[in-house]
């Protein structure tokens, strides 16, 4: 009997202890922290950053719980599984921070951020979330625009940049020249592609590319420009040009195209031999003599304006020497190298000994 009473007493004490523990738990352990709501800062636009901000309940109890017992806040991002569908969301396992940067592939989708707060007792609040509308494409823009190329007049140059703002449409590019120290830009007609093949006309200028980003729906962004260092003469050409400038007077053999009809097929018997004489003061084109004729000077003139030399983008062997509107000649040589040497020697004499500006030596179209 005594043993039975002892057992009942022990059970009663155990039960009483459990009840006291429960009472003490509810007496001293606070309520679970709660999240009143979640707000998303930022716009649902490509390139923008969405940031989740949790709102704490205004009650004194919750303010105290958050202040004393909050351990941390967990975030989880979701996106709609089908473009434009805001009812079905996919879990994004790697996106667990309070912020998310919207990308091109997010355009047309909706996003949800779920927020859960935990306390020091290992408890978690009910999840609270916020959602966005469908993500819109951003304003077209081009970042990190640069021009790649080796820096010589015989090199190929290319525009590189990072486009953002929806799907890129027919963005526009224009190549120009800029003289160092001058704000003026000289457009290069017809050069509107991502790549540009430099030529002797670019020597001494910076190449400038203006890139206007355009979205596939026609929306335009702000134009952005990039430029090179001044274009230098290719070393082998430069060496030869310097030698001839030091001589002060040089001669070149060339062919003259007498028939300048646009319908003529080049090389059909209209090319005649010519001697191009160049010195510090003037340029002269001479038709050599023969057994039946004396040499004839076809062009003779100084470097004073309107003298200039024109190149042909579609023929690297041709050049045109223009004294004035009635005094010009088209010449052909056997290589681009020789053409470049001739042009640079004439321009070198004009600039060094006649103070003629580089702009006046080119056929400039603005």
From TrEMBL:
Q: Which residues form the AIR9 PH-like domain?
A: 257-353
Q: Which Pfam families match?
A: IG_AIR9 (PF23197), PH_AIR9 (PF23218)
Boundaries of every AIR9-like A9 domain copy: 142-227
Q: Which domain of life is it from?
A: Eukaryota
Gene Ontology terms: cellular component: plasma membrane; plasmodesma
Spell out the protein name for this chain.
Uncharacterized protein
Question: Which species expresses this protein natively?
Answer: Dovyalis caffra
Taxonomically, what lineage is the organism?
Answer: Eukaryota, Viridiplantae, Streptophyta, Embryophyta, Tracheophyta
């Amino acid at each position: 009997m005594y043993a039975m009473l002892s057992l009942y007493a022990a059970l009663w004490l155990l039960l009483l202890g459990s009840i006291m523990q429960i009472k003490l738990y509810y007496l001293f352990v606070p309520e679970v922290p709660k999240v009143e709501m979640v707000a998303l800062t930022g716009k649902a636009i490509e390139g923008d950053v969405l940031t989740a901000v949790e709102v704490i309940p205004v009650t004194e109890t919750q303010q105290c719980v958050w202040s004393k017992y909050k351990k941390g806040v967990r975030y989880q991002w979701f996106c709609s599984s089908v473009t434009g569908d805001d009812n079905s969301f996919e879990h994004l396992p790697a996106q667990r921070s309070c912020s998310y940067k919207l990308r091109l592939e997010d355009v047309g989708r909706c996003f949800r951020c779920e927020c859960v707060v935990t306390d020091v007792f290992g408890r978690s609040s009910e999840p609270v979330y916020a959602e966005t509308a469908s993500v819109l494409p951003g304003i077209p823009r081009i970042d990190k625009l640069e021009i790649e190329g080796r820096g010589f007049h015989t090199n190929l140059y290319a525009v590189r940049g990072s486009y953002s703002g929806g799907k890129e449409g027919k963005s526009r590019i224009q190549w120009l020249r800029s003289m160092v120290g001058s704000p003026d830009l000289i457009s290069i007609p017809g050069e509107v592609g991502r790549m540009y093949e430099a030529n002797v006309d670019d020597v001494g200028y910076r190449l400038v590319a203006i890139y206007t980003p355009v979205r596939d729906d026609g929306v335009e962004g702000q134009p952005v420009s990039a430029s090179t260092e001044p274009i230098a003469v290719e070393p082998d050409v430069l060496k030869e040009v310097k030698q001839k400038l030091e001589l002060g007077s040089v001669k070149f053999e060339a062919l003259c195209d007498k028939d300048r009809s646009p319908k003529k097929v080049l090389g059909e018997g209209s090319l005649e031999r010519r001697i191009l004489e160049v010195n510090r003061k003037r340029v002269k084109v001479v038709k050599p003599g023969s057994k039946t004729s004396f040499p004839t000077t076809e062009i003779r003139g100084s470097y004073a304006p309107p003298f200039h030399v024109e190149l042909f983008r579609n023929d690297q062997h041709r050049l045109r020497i223009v004294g004035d509107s009635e005094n010009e000649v088209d010449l052909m040589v056997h290589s681009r190298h020789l053409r470049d040497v001739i042009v640079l020697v004439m321009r070198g004499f004009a600039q060094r000994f006649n103070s003629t500006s580089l702009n006046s030596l080119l056929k400039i179209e603005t």
